[in-house]
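Note to self: keep these together.
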Amino acid sequence: MDHFQDRPGPTGAPELWCEDVPLAEIAEAVGTPVYVYSTATLERHFTVFRDALQAAMPGRRLLVAYAVKANSNLAVIRTLARLGAGADTVSEGEIRRALAAGVPPERIVFSGVGKTDAELAFAIDQGVCEINVEAEAELERLAAIAEARGARPAIAIRVNPDVGAGGHAKISTGKAESKFGVSFSEARRLYARAAASPFLRPVGVACHIGSQITDLAPLEAAFTRMRGLVEDLRREGLSVERLDLGGGLGVPYFDAPEAPPLPSIYAAMVARVLDGLDIDLAFEPGRLIVANAGVLVATAIHVHRRAEGRSFLVVDAAMNDLLRPTLYEAYHGIRPVRSGNGAPEEAMDVVGPVCETGDTFARDRPLPPMAAGDLVAFQSAGAYGASMSSEYNSRPLIPEVLVSGDRFSVIRRRPTFEEMLAREPLPDWLG
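Structure:
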């Protein structure tokens, strides 16, 4: 469920609202393109996921660490932190964002295949909950950094379970050929090595096999293998306190054929696989929390109809604002903010103004008659939209707006062209 619903507009015709604010009002006040997020949806998605886990596994210690990379806006992170969310981070910048948004260090997980020495030192100094180690070389570097700082950080070994899943090859992370994690044989050896080090404190093992997973079978297979690893390590006399199962559970993109399982079904599967295993659990949902909590509102520049019959709806949003369709062939529902008069729909390619053929959001998408100035909403745009945006073609980063009830606030403003240019000082010899 989300909180983007049709309500009567000024003319009495239906138009799309976010909670108690018309999207057209935000577009008029802030301009387009603009990302709009619903507080009520963020809160609901987090609590539904957390409560499903708690109901399926009462008494277990659970950490739900929001994957910051999905949407790294401080206001989004703060909204979730106030509900008790932790943060799954993959850079020093994301750790700093989580801390600035009010996530305590003991609820921050630091992951990633290429952590620099400076980033590892920063994570140690902050006292994060867990550093997920993904290679033997990283384990060696981390031990040396910890020794130099007189510290003993908590770590987990990230395991690659050789189970592939995800909505696209580029977001499948659990196969043996992917860059993430270590093999099971390496995990056992590295865990024992870490346990023998006076500068490392191994507390668990972790996995994450992909994103936008709509079938529980690969998740169950991976989790079953991870349970076996925990049991093997304990038989060797090693302490394993925590099992980090990552994220990846898919979301229903509007009008798309995907039908992912409900969080309650997912939680029941986890409970079944881990029944009888006394261990703390960590989860790292991202897309599940924020995808359907946001839309991208754009304005139609014009409709271009070619003589041979192909029609293009050209909007003021582009691939630099919402990269997912170009990068992953991702599907987003597209609908007018103000409903039409019931006229027949027309198949149109929805495209942006960037000078790339890849700047295409949809092909042959049925839409009601559109005209210059009409507003459209790209649905399910709260995840990997603003966080992956850029200033390609010297287009300013677009604003983000958070709605709460009948209030809205700009939580990232659009920079001016002057501000963009001021970031690039000319060298003396070109002055």
